[in-house]
C-alpha cells in the first residue's frame, strides 16, 4: 500500500495509515490495560475503555466506508493494478516488494491480470518481446510450478508475434477472482469480525466493572466522621 506515488491512491494510503494507527493504539491499549488492572489504577482502566471504544467505532466506520464506497475503491484499485502490470519489470529492485505481492495474488487466486490476461499485453517488456513471453505467476502449466515471478518463455510460438491467447495462463481475471473469494469466505470473514467485536465489548465491560470495584473499595476505606 505504501508504494511509489505512481502506483498509489489517496484512499488506499489513508487506509494504510489508519491501520498503522490502530495497530499502534492497540499495543498502547494493551499495555495500559495490564498496568491499570495489576495496579488497580482507575484512570488507566478508563483510558483502556476509551481506547477500546475508539477502535470499535473505527472498525465500524471502516466497514461502512468500504461498503458504501466499494465501487470507487474498485476503480482506484483497478488504476493501481493496471499501472503495476504495465510497468512490471523483474529487474526493478525498487518495485520488488509490490511486484512480488501481485505475483503472490495471481498464484494464490489462480488468475491473470486485473480483468484478464489481456491486461498484460500493455506491459512494455512483453511488447518488446513480441508477446513470446508471459508472466510466470499466471501460468497454469505444471512446468512453471517452481517459477513464481518474472517472465517465462512461450514454447514453440507459432509466429514471431504472439498474443495473450497463445499463453498457457489462467483465463480468470483477478478482479473476479477476489470477488469470488470474498463471497465464498464471507461467512468466515463476518464470523471473525463479530468475534473481534464481541471480545472488544467484553473488554469494555470488564474494565468498567473493575473501575466500579476499585471505586467501591476506595469508598469503604474512607473513614467515617
From TrEMBL:
Q: Name one Pfam family in it.
A: Tetraspanin
* UniProt keyword Transmembrane helix, yes or no: yes
Please classify the protein's predominant subcellular localization into one broad category.
membrane
Give the membrane topology: Multi-pass membrane protein
Q: Which residues cross the membrane?
A: 16-38, 45-68, 188-211
Q: Keywords for this entry?
A: Membrane, Transmembrane, Transmembrane helix
* GO (cellular component) term, any one: plasma membrane
Cross-referenced PROSITE patterns: TM4_1 (PS00421)
Cite the InterPro entries for this sequence: Tetraspanin/Peripherin, Tetraspanin_animals, Tetraspanin_CS, Tetraspanin_EC2_sf
Localization terms from the record: Membrane
What PANTHER family does the record tag this protein with? CD82 ANTIGEN (PTHR19282:SF44), TETRASPANIN (PTHR19282)
Family statement: Belongs to the tetraspanin (TM4SF) family.
Supply the name of the protein.
Tetraspanin
What is the originating organism of this protein? Cepphus grylle
Which gene is the coding source of this polypeptide chain?
Cd82_1
Amino acid at each position: 500500500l505504501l508504494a511509489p506515488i505512481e502506483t498509489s491512491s489517496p484512499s488506499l494510503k489513508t487506509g494504510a495509515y489508519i491501520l498503522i494507527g490502530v495497530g499502534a493504539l492497540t499495543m498502547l491499549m494493551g499495555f495500559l490495560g495490564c498496568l491499570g488492572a495489576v495496579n488497580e489504577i482507575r484512570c488507566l482502566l478508563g483510558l483502556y475503555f476509551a481506547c477500546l471504544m475508539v477502535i470499535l467505532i473505527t472498525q465500524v466506520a471502516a466497514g461502512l466506508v468500504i461498503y458504501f464506497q466499494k465501487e470507487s475503491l474498485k476503480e482506484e484499485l483497478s488504476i493501481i493494478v493496471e499501472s503495476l502490470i504495465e510497468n512490471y519489470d523483474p529487474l526493478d529492485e525498487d518495485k520488488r516488494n509490490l511486484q512480488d505481492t501481485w505475483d503472490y495474488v495471481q498464484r494464490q487466486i489462480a488468475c491473470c491480470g486485473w480483468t484478464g490476461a489481456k491486461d498484460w499485453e500493455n506491459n512494455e517488456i512483453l511488447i518488446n518481446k513480441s508477446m513470446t513471453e508471459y508472466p510466470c505467476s499466471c501460468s497454469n502449466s505444471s512446468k512453471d510450478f517452481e517459477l513464481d515471478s518474472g517472465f517465462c518463455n512461450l514454447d514453440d510460438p507459432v509466429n514471431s508475434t504472439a498474443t495473450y491467447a497463445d499463453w498457457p495462463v489462467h483465463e480468470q481475471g483477478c478482479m473476479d477472482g477476489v470477488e469470488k473469494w470474498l463471497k465464498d469466505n464471507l461467512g468466515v470473514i463476518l464470523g471473525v469480525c463479530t468475534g473481534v467485536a464481541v471480545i472488544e465489548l467484553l473488554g469494555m465491560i470488564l474494565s468498567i466493572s473493575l473501575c466500579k470495584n476499585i471505586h467501591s473499595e476506595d469508598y469503604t476505606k474512607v473513614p467515617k466522621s
